[in-house]
Design a protein that fits this description.
A hairpin with a 2-residue loop joins β1 (about 10-15) and β2 (about 15-20). The protein is built from 3 helices and 7 strands. It has helices at about 45-70, 90-100, 120-135; strands at about 10-15, 15-20, 30-40, 70-75, 80-85, 100-105, 105-115. The strands form 2 sheets. Strands 4-5-3-7-6 form a 5-stranded antiparallel sheet, sandwiched between helices. It has a two-stranded antiparallel ribbon with strand order 1-2. It starts with 8 loop residues before the first strand and ends with a helix. It has one domain (about 30-135): Ribonuclease P, Pop5 subunit (Alpha-Beta Plaits), CATH 3.30.70. α1 packs antiparallel against α2. It is an alpha+beta fold. Helices cover about 35% and strands about 35% of the residues.
Length: about 140
């Protein structure tokens, strides 16, 4: 049996075939969810934001560092989004977001609203509160 902390599955060789089993929760890396807001003159497309996060991450951390941090965009709509990363690399991820200044040729500012351990917490604590204040 081969066990690895980098792969979310346990590989078992049975009768010449590789069978993958999920890792136990205690062996998985814990995640944090960062709520972000974009300040820009015009709305930004989701794909452009994902590309900007990837480019900034590779430029600041390098390809290997970006992969170790586990940075990925879970959702982005309008001017708000949620970014997932490993719990040990929250400060590095926020640093990567600070380096994003241009998306599709327009100036943007990425503002970190907050960090949470769950997606629901990030939405309710940080993003919906600001949406309610904007509508009032």
């Amino acid at each position: 049996m081969i066990k690895s902390s980098y792969v979310p599955f346990t590989c078992i060789l049975k009768a010449g075939c590789i069978h993958l089993e999920p890792l136990l929760p205690s062996l998985r890396k814990r995640k944090r969810y960062i709520a972000v807001e974009l300040v820009s003159a015009a709305p930004v497309q989701r794909n452009a934001f994902i590309a900007a996060v990837s480019q900034a991450g590779c430029a600041v951390l390098g390809d290997a560092g970006f992969a170790v941090c586990g940075i990925s965009v879970l959702g982005f709509e309008g001017s708000a989004g949620i970014i997932k990363c490993h719990h040990t690399s929250v400060s590095q991820t926020i640093g990567v977001l600070a380096f994003i200044t241009m998306i599709d040729g327009q100036k943007v500012i990425v503002r970190t609203a907050g960090v949470s351990g769950t997606v629901k917490g990030a939405l309710t604590k940080f993003l919906q509160k600001e949406n309610r204040a904007a509508t009032e």
